[in-house]
Amino acid sequence: MRTSTAFGVDIGGSGIKGAIVDLEKGDLATERVKYLTPNPSTPEPVAAVVARLVKEAEWTGDLGATFPAVIKNGVARSAANVDKSWIGTDVDKVLTDITHCDVTVLNDADAAGIAEARFGAAKGVDGVVILLTFGTGIGSALLLDGQLVPNTELGHLELDGYDAEKKASSAAKDNEGLSYRQWAKRVQRYLRHVENLFTPDLFVVGGGVSKNADKWVPLLEISTPVKPAQLLNNAGIVGAAMAAHEKFTE
User: Fold this and answer.
1) Farthest CA pair distance, the chain
2) For residue 39, what pLDDT is reported?
3) Are 63 and 9 spatial neighbours (Cβ–Cβ below 8 Å)?
4) Arithmetic mean of pLDDT, 1-24
5) Residue 90: CB partners within 8 Å, gap ≥ 6?
6) What is the dihedral of CA 178, 184, 185, 186, to 10 degrees?
């Protein structure tokens, strides 16, 4: 009988976080540990941080890892906010070799999406759900009746001549010194664009800025209901652990 825990690692452009996850509760079973993403964020030093997290947790079982890229069969087909040398790299093999664990890799927003569908804001919601993570960029997860359609990358939709995330990410808010009200107008324009393309039944908004959802979500005027992610910044870790435990593949 398989245990109901797995180790989740969330690899991002600024930080790499990890914890053991209780898969029955959808919550962290140990304290989350975070280290800064190395600069440059090339494969070897990033993998070394993951190995450190695993070693410090004394973990030897299933290991799930998110990665900010399109992931096909464990291989990175893009590289968002990490070094471009990752493109074409077998992320699964790199992490398996250094940790000696059975590793499963998936896109970071996809991991958050499956976690929210199982344990969070999208639990029990039928139809089309789109989770969007607002951070350094905009990550996306598209779910149909709780099942993931992987690697959608909706943050890169063109809007007003730009990648949407260049104007509507939380990084854009911080870099341009926008108020929540100013930034919410940009988010609203972006959401309406996505709404017109997919006609979703629910938007779930995550990323670090979701902890302040009360300051901007009520300002949005769109037809689709919008809910803040319930797992907040732990969604990626939980989703990665779920994927490893269930051997999720696209």
Assistant:
1) 53
2) 96
3) yes
4) 90
5) 74, 75
6) 80
Average pLDDT over the chain reads: 94
Q: Is the pTM higher than 0.90?
A: yes
Instruction: Give SS3 for 225.
Output: coil
Q: Torsion angle of alpha carbons 14, 20, 25, 27, nearest 10°?
A: -30
Contact 228, 87 (CB under 8 A): no
Contact criterion met (CB below 8 Å) for 241 and 21: yes
- The dihedral through the CA atoms of 234, 240, 244, 248 has a sign that is positive
Alpha helices in the chain (DSSP H): 43-56, 91-99, 108-119, 164-168, 170-176, 180-198, 235-246
Provide the residue type at 46 as one letter: V
Q: Note the pLDDT tens digit of each residue in 135-151.
A: 888 999 999 999 999 99
Nearest to 11 by CA among 44, 46, 40: 46
Q: Residues 65, 6: contact at Cβ < 8 Å? A: no
- Half-sphere exposure at residue 198, Cβ-oriented, CA atoms within 13 angstroms: 25
How far is Cα 18 from Cα 137, in angstroms, rounded to an integer? Answer: 21
Query: What's the Cα-to-Cα distance from 193 to each of 65, 85, 159, 187, rounded to whole Å?
Result: 30, 32, 8, 10
